[in-house]
Amino acid sequence: MPTIKIGENRQTVITTFEVTPGTCQDLMDELNAAYRDFISKQPGFIAAGLHVNDAQTRIANYAQWEKREDFLAMLRSPEMRERTRAFSALCKTFEPVMYDVQETF
């Protein structure tokens, strides 16, 4: 389970996917399979969560990694590059962005 704390030396990645109601579940299935079968088994992976808006036009993915380099290594692997192409075919756009926690309430 993700935890959000200031000062932890973790890499947070938030990815948003723009989808249609017709492709939302298909992309969710692909993302679930990617996390279950590959991403969650990679060195440095801590936790992740997938979120869908009510209209099924956006998927948000919140992931935590021990280090930035761990996330980048996973992202650049041949298997993830193939999975990323499959994600691209099911959405209009997606963008992973790395963040550092600045404050919690």
Automatic annotation (TrEMBL):
GO terms for molecular function: monooxygenase activity. PROSITE patterns: ABM. Coiled coil: none annotated. InterPro entries: ABM_dom, Dimeric_a/b-barrel. Keywords: Monooxygenase, Oxidoreductase. Residues 11-105 form the ABM domain. This is Antibiotic biosynthesis monooxygenase. It comes from Cognatishimia maritima.
